[in-house]
Design goal:
By secondary structure, this protein is an alpha+beta fold. It contains 9 helices and 4 strands, in the order ααααααββαααββ. The longest helix has 21 residues. It is globular and about 55 Å long. The mean pLDDT is 96.
Length: 213
């Protein structure tokens, strides 16, 4: 994968936030945070270079690029913070004003015909059949009309973090699903299984807020 394009854009959008939260959430001093950011950028580019180019129409490019960014920072932190602290760090670093706006805009489209069509298209695309760093999912609308579940049978994040030897970081990324759903304002996120914890799949359930008691 080339660094130019989305990887470069993601670094531009989030690197400052990641550096700041290295201090405010993880407790590193400012000099250490600056060093971590500098070393993380080089690591990030190395990770991006090892990834294949994603197919046009693969909607999960942002997910793997975000994973590469979190991994690059984590690999340059000594000692490594706990998974719990990295979960807090990732949530705080990612939920910038532009990301909150993105989530709200996505929330307005949640459960629309366009949203459903996009999920059905993703189900048929099966990108992970050709790219181990992407995802395969199936779409399961709830019978009572209260929402739907996107069920993932292959996860690119799991593939990449295993290869990097930091699979323990996976739950920190999984937890952001709850935060993004809440920020969208239209759905309540529910989950029973994750591939990272040994489940048969990752279930990403979205219930309409008016259907949640």
């Amino acid at each position: 994968m080339k660094y130019a394009g989305m990887p470069a854009g993601m670094w531009l959008l989030f690197a400052n936030s990641f550096e700041k939260k290295t201090v405010s959430v993880l407790g590193f001093d400012r000099d250490a945070a600056r060093r971590i950011r500098k070393d993380a950028k080089a690591e990030y580019r190395r990770i991006i270079d090892r990834l294949p180019t994603f197919e046009k129409g693969d909607r999960f490019l942002m997910n793997i690029v975000s994973c590469a960014m979190l991994a690059a920072f984590y690999l340059n932190m000594a000692p490594h913070p706990s998974t719990e602290r990295m979960t807090d760090f990732y949530r705080e670093a990612m939920m910038t004003k532009p990301m909150l706006l993105f989530c709200r805009m996505s929330g307005k489209r949640k459960f629309s015909k366009k949203d459903i069509a996009r999920l059905q298209k993703t189900e048929a695309f099966r990108a992970a059949d050709r790219n181990p760093y992407s995802w395969n999912m199936t779409f399961h609308p709830y019978a009572d009309g209260s929402g739907y579940e996107a069920r993932f049978t292959h996860c690119g994040i799991c593939t990449l973090l295993r290869e990097l030897g930091i699979f323990e970081l996976t739950p920190a990324m999984c937890a952001l699903d709850y935060t993004m759903s809440e920020a969208g304002g239209a759905s309540v996120f529910v989950r029973e299984y994750t591939l990272a914890s040994g489940g048969p799949y990752c279930d990403c359930g979205y219930k309409r807020k008016e259907n949640v008691k």
